[in-house]
Write a structure and sequence with these properties.
The structure holds two protein chains of two kinds. Chain A is mostly helical. Chain A is built from two helices and no strands. In chain A, α1 packs antiparallel against α2. Chain B has one domain. Chain B is 84% helix and 0% strand. The longest helix of chain B is centred in the first third of the chain and has 74 residues. Chain B starts with a helix and ends with a helix. Classes of the chains: A mainly alpha, B mainly alpha. Chains A and B meet through α1 of A and α6 of B.
Chain lengths: 64, 203
């Protein structure tokens, strides 16, 4: 696992949180929610491979 | 030509070195390309955000100068009873730069004496002019309604219509000011932040 991915996710988190604050200040709460949700989904797509690896590993450890 | 083992080794090493060098060179080129692409995306996002924010900032300013221009026109019509082309060009000389073109263009169209009515000249100029300013269709509609009565009715009637148009523009200005407060900073930030997000996701 490379450390780059962690940094990438951290930056996405920071940018999304700032966007959320800006949008909320402008009174567009609904769009702020959508942006946060989009950020979560993007991060999920980034880590989905690692999660699948984890499941495969669990399966092999318990010989399922 | 026969090569000694030593010479073969040297040339092989040289080739490997050469290969390694070109590879690192290509990698450097790729990362430079990536970086410049990222920079372009951020710049584009910054530019889009700022141009939209600029539109929100300019709209109340232009509405204000339109109001003062219409007030001048009203004075010209009601107190000095100047003929319309002349009145319009006089207003154009004195009013703000952003709305000058509207008055100037209409005056010029009327002065060419090609048989336009005042309303036609006003509407034609308005059509060209609205593409270059930050006004919304609702603001332009107020001006279009005003154009249909310019130069066709009595002095008092025109005065009333100008007053009405100014009042409507004032209402629009209040609304535009509220929108500016909400949206100007928003667009300035979201342009840059969204492009940054795109860059990070793609990088």
């Amino acid at each position: 696992m490379s450390i780059d991915l962690v940094f990438k996710i951290a930056i996405v988190g920071i940018v999304v949180s700032v966007l959320h604050i800006v949008l909320k200040q402008a009174g567009k709460e609904d769009i702020a929610q959508i942006v946060t949700l989009a950020g979560v989904i993007v991060v999920l797509v980034m880590v989905i491979e690692l999660i699948s690896d984890l499941f495969v590993m669990v399966k092999t450890v318990f010989q399922l | 030509m026969t090569l000694t083992p030593h010479a073969v080794q040297a040339s092989g090493l040289g080739r490997v070195k050469h290969l390694l060098l070109t590879e690192s060179n290509q990698e450097g080129k790729m990362s430079a390309l990536k970086l410049s692409g990222a920079l372009l995306i951020v710049l584009a996002g910054w530019f889009i955000g700022f141009s939209v924010a600029e539109k929100f900032r300019l709209r109340p300013v232009q509405l204000r100068s339109l109001q003062s221009g219409l007030l001048m026109l009203q004075t010209e019509i009601s107190y000095t009873a100047t003929p319309l082309p002349e009145a319009l060009s006089r207003v154009a000389e004195r009013c703000d730069l952003s709305v000058q073109e509207l008055f100037k263009g209409t005056a010029q169209k009327l002065m060419t004496r090609q048989g336009f009515t005042a309303a036609e000249a006003w509407n034609m100029t308005l059509k060209d002019w609205q593409l270059r300013v930050a006004l919304m269709p609702s603001d332009v509609n107020i001006l279009r309604n005003l154009g249909s009565v310019l130069g066709t009715s009595s002095r008092e009637e025109q005065e009333k219509h100008l007053l009405l148009a100014r009042e409507q523009l004032r209402q629009e200005e209040i609304k535009a000011e509220q929108e500016r407060n909400k949206n100007e900073t928003l667009w300035k930030y979201t342009g840059v932040l969204t492009s940054l997000l795109i860059v990070i996701i793609l990088y």
